[in-house]
Design brief:
With 261 residues, this protein is of the alpha+beta class. It is 15% helix and 28% strand. It contains four helices and 15 strands.
């Protein structure tokens, strides 16, 4: 395989906008530095995210270069507010006003706030796969597909769904490497309702999940392990990164290779 890492995306506040970087350091907790290191939670400690609240997808945000401040605004509005991430009280109050109920913003820079505590590492997909999926839905382009599926690592130079080689059979962890960083591929990622919605308006595409499942099954590579699909609303690969990789840096342009099992 002659793949290489084409893009790296981090999403500092879980469920909000991310941004691309040229390089990312691996933390002691096995995540990309700054990825999902903040999370919005309600008074019961439950995540406030796109699965629960479609309106969160109307929030836009940008960060300063050192990810010390965040600026937020609602899609289509001119008013913007900037908050320091070291002191999150004001940010929590602004978000609470937007949602209509009290929230707080938690911080965990070492391990972040992954959805899957077993496969806690970055999600991996190929650019060709995103382009293929975008073509299944009129009006969806590559950038929209990126924002809908929110993968961390985008592989270039690969065929569509080449990332399906990065997981194996049930209970198998398939080793692969990106540059000097060793990863384990766990499983094809089970998707939620978020990709069905436009990333700006939060409007849903009718029958998105049904269409996706039909097309995904049709285009599953012949060599992929179909046992990993209890349904076909799965896309991109969940991973983990071991403690031995802490401090290593992953860079755009790094080669991507499967390792011997």
């Amino acid at each position: 395989m002659t793949f290489h890492l084409g893009r790296i995306f981090v999403f500092p506040i879980k469920s909000l906008d991310g941004f691309s970087v040229d390089a990312a350091r691996i933390t002691a907790g096995g995540i990309l530095e700054h990825d999902r290191e903040y999370a919005i939670v309600d008074e019961d400690g439950h995540y406030v995210n796109g699965k629960r609240l479609p309106q969160i997808q109307r929030l836009r945000c940008v960060y300063d270069p050192d990810v010390r401040e965040v600026t937020l605004w609602e899609q289509g509005q001119n008013s913007r507010s900037t908050f320091p991430l070291a002191e999150r009280g004001g940010l929590g109050r602004w978000l609470g006003d937007f949602f209509g109920f009290p929230v707080t913003v938690r911080h965990e820079p070492r391990s972040g706030f992954p959805d899957d505590r077993d496969a806690f590492g970055p999600t991996v997909v190929s650019e060709a796969s995103l382009s293929a999926v975008a073509a299944w839905f009129p009006g969806v382009d590559l950038e929209s597909a990126r924002r809908r599926f929110r993968a961390n690592l985008e592989i270039a130079g690969a065929d569509a769904f080449a990332e399906d080689a990065f997981y194996g059979g049930p209970d198998e962890r398939r080793p692969f490497a990106i540059g000097a960083v060793q990863l384990l591929g766990h499983n094809p990622c089970q998707r939620c309702v978020v990709p069905t919605r436009d990333p700006d308006s939060a409007e849903s595409i009718p029958h998105f999940q049904k269409i996706f499942m039909e097309k995904r099954k049709q285009h599953l590579p012949a060599w992929a392990d179909a046992r990993r699909f209890n349904h076909f609303y799965r896309f991109a690969v969940n991973t983990s990164i071991g403690a031995s990789e802490a401090g290593k840096v992953m860079r755009v342009g790094d080669p991507v290779r499967l390792e011997p099992a």
